Amino acid sequence: MTEVGTVPSHHLRNYIAPAAPATRRACDGTEPEMRVEFGFTPRWYRDRCGIDFSERYHLDPLSRRECLVAMKKELNRQFPDLCLGGPNPEETPATLDGVHGALVVPMIFGVRPEYYPDNWPAPKPGVMTEAEVEALEVPELSGVSVFAQLVEQMDTIEREFGRIEGFINWQGVLNTAFRLRGHEIFIDLLEKTSLARHLFDVISKTMIEGARFVYARQARTGVIVRHFSVSNCVVNMVSPALYREHLMPYDRRISDAFEHFGIHNCAWNVDPYVADYASIRTLGYVDMGLESDLVRAKEICPDTRRAIMYTPTDLAAKPEERIWGDLVRIRRELSPCDVVAADIETDTPEERVRMFADMARKTLEAGSTSPSPCRRGI
């Protein structure tokens, strides 16, 4: 396996741009054995910077860039020792990070977004009927308004900054099907299998086509993206057998379409699914909740960058001694790995974030060399 720095080239790490949903990016070899990634909700930034995350934020890359600079400066002001905003926030270019939150693919299929000044966009009420699903086809993306506007944004970013940086959050097949069909998708899986599979087929092909287009457009500006990471946030709503039979074929299809591949399992117990995930291919990334059997996950995915999704409620309210115990366990049983403290809410004291970072650093120093004190993600 080709190496990048000191890690295999297929390894991915968690990545949370300011106010954007978590996604993944390639490892660069600088990652410590146990790396923390912090992410804060739009409301956190709204309350501290006054940023409006309504429609303009998602449609105007230059306005979004101004907000991004302000957010990075605020991160450095609140957490000067952690360098979460990077060394030179004012040099930040416009990017694709966070555009339409997790709704780009649903919007391609006609989902109407509801934008908020202090939150990610959410789909407006309404689900596809059976007839609408049956009639669904892979769309010609150039004729889809949300995608055409995304191309305009990429043109603007290239014109103003040269390189088109950032990542669209493509989500996953079941996540998108749930947004299109609602809870009916779980009934479809049991009673209308052909309907569900048709929906999964169209979604997966559209995701691949959309990502390939964006990656090719980025590559023209020197930004090379070789990976795809699916989000299986609602996979716990289906049994391992149903996942294996009806959903894994589409995850496998997406995996086959890209050089490197990862799976976001969310903060659920990964135990019922991890063996199936690992059978798709050598994963670059997989994450899980603390209830998972971490030792088994490491055994099943030995050549994978693994991650724990540390819940915002645990970060905000768990006793300090239990957090310390969690971090010791994570390092002992799962590392090398990421610890992802995402969706930190506005009422979580900054001191809790600093405490968590300090504990993680001490846990790491107890058994390995301390990383640079000025690196994003500790």
Write the layout of secondary structure elements.
Elements: E1 3-4, E2 7-8, E3 12-15, E4 23-26, E5 34-40, H1 42-49, H2 55-59, H3 61-78, H4 104-108, E6 113-116, E7 119-123, H5 130-134, H6 145-161, H7 173-181, H8 184-191, H9 193-219, E8 227-231, H10 240-257, E9 260-264, H11 274-280, E10 285-288, H12 294-300, E11 305-309, H13 312-317, H14 320-334, E12 337-344, H15 350-365
Parallel strand pairs: 5-12, 8-9, 9-10, 10-11, 11-12
Antiparallel strand pairs: 1-2, 3-4, 6-7
Helix pairs in contact: 7-9, 8-9, 9-10, 14-15
Give the tags:
single chain; alpha/beta; TIM Barrel; six-stranded parallel β-sheet; two-stranded antiparallel ribbon; 15 helices; 12 strands; 45% helix
- Mean pLDDT over the full residue set: 94
Distance between the termini: 27 Å
* CATH class category: Alpha Beta
Q: Compute the number of structural domains.
A: 1
Q: What is the total tally of β strands?
A: 12
Order of helices and strands: EEEEEHHHHEEHHHHHEHEHEHEHHEH
How would you characterize this protein structure?
With 378 residues, this protein is α/β, with parallel strands linked by helices. The chain has a single domain (3-365), classed as TIM Barrel, CATH 3.20.20. The chain is 45% helix and 15% strand. The protein contains 15 helices and twelve strands. Strands 5-12-11-10-9-8 form a six-stranded parallel sheet. Helix 8 (184-191) crosses helix 9, helix 9 packs parallel to helix 10 (240-257) and helix 14 (320-334) packs across helix 15. The longest helix has 27 residues, at 193-219.
